[in-house]
Amino acid sequence: MKATLAVLNQMQADGVIGAYAIGGAVGATFYLEPVATLDLDVFVLLKPATGSVLLTLSSIYDYLKARGHRIEGEYVIVEGWPVQFLPPAGPLEEEAITQSVQVEVEGVSVSVMTAEHLVAIALATGRAKDFSRILQFIEAGALDTARLDALLARHGLLAKWAGFGEKFLRDTP
Amino acid sequence: MSDWMRQILESKRAMRSRLASLPIAEKLALLEKLRGRSLAIRAARLARLTKPALKTP
What we know:
The complex is a heterodimer.
Chain A: H1 2-13, E1 17-22, H2 24-29, E2 40-46, H3 58-66, E3 70-72, E4 75-78, E5 81-86, H4 91-98, E6 101-105, E7 108-112, H5 115-125, H6 128-140, H7 145-154, H8 158-168
Parallel strand pairs in A: 2-5
Antiparallel strand pairs in A: 1-2, 3-4, 4-5, 6-7
Helix pairs in contact in A: 4-5, 5-6, 5-7
Chain B: H1 3-20, H2 24-50
């Protein structure tokens, strides 16, 4: 994993990607107990290719392929870990990248989404496993509630949050 | 909920809390192990699914 994270930093240093932030289960592991997963989700701000205004993932694939990393469907196998590069789907993911926090992992500095952004994205995604992860964050006391409330309000997720609370937290003391 | 079940849930909560407070490098090492196990389980399941069915005499 450390080697995979180092490749991300090198990609940024080489200008292939702009800012990035680790999300998904690996991102959650920075705040919770280790969360089983098969892949690494990396949200990236893409840089347009020279002479183009289009933002695509092809420059990422080309860069990694040229360095011997294998492409498998939507994943690139980077130092043994399948990595999925995800451009932001909207303002929430964009903010999650720009407001990510730096964490040191055995000498490698990595950008990780804040706990509140991970929860907001999980809420917006809305699969059963996302709801389960939100509950883990709540149970672990890993959230700054004022910060989360502001974030949810900013991104129009308060109604969804209320629905989540009604469904899953009604009997919680 | 019975006291017995409450104790089990409490011990699970305590273990999760202990794991959550480990240094991040240790947590990522555990993540690698979990991934290895998940892949092994998945491979075993696939092998079972692709095994030809036994013919009854």
